[in-house]
Backbone:
């Protein structure tokens, strides 16, 4: 079960400390996604972000896949559960820039302010989840934690503000949501009808066996 944890203070590393950590990081990498230190002290590397989105996203219809509803040139659809994306970023990239890059990679037209990036880590048999501020640097967090995703992983979710702020969505987005809900409702109704029809057939078959003369 996820629990909230206070944000840890940022510890600034010297150029030599960064170099040592990158060497240690690269020696532990098993998927070839290593970090590179540039002469100016900026380093680049990869992070993996799991998409945990409960609401549909809006994309250009030509790029869409899966369960969707159309509106002009845009489509609202649900991302597959457990979808993970890999980004190549630098140590100067902020959380806000990472979110924007993820949305751009998926051709998402939604406002980046609707989303938040979380870090998830395991300590003492507990899973701690903490929302990152827009100014934090994900690659620094990856470097400090090491390459093992069970020690630290990143998750993209809808920005939690208590209840859903529907006024933040455009009219086409809301119309698409309604179409998706209508489609899901009809699908669930068909499933229920088939289930009860099968149950009714079994009951009638059983009754026929009981009252059959013999």
Residues:
């Amino acid at each position: 079960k996820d629990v909230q944890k206070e944000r840890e203070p940022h510890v600034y590393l010297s150029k030599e400390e960064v170099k040592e950590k990158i060497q240690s990081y690269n020696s532990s990498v098993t998927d070839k996604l290593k970090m590179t230190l540039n002469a100016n002290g900026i380093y680049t590397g990869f992070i993996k972000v799991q998409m945990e989105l409960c609401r549909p996203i809006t994309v250009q219809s030509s790029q869409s896949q899966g369960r969707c509803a159309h509106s002009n040139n845009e489509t609202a659809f649900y991302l597959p559960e457990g979808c993970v994306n890999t980004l190549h970023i630098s140590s100067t990239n902020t959380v806000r820039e990472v979110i924007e890059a993820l949305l751009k990679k998926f051709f998402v037209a939604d406002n980046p302010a609707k989303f938040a990036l979380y870090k998830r880590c395991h300590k003492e048999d507990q899973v701690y989840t903490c929302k990152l501020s827009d100014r934090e640097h994900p690659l620094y967090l990856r470097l400090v934690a090491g390459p093992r995703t069970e020690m630290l992983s990143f998750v993209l979710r809808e920005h939690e503000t208590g209840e859903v702020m529907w006024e933040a969505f455009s009219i086409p987005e809301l119309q698409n949501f309604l179409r998706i809900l209508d489609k899901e409702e009809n699908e669930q109704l068909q499933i229920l009808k088939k289930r009860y029809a099968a149950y009714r057939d079994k009951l009638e078959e059983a009754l026929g066996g009981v009252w059959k003369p013999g």
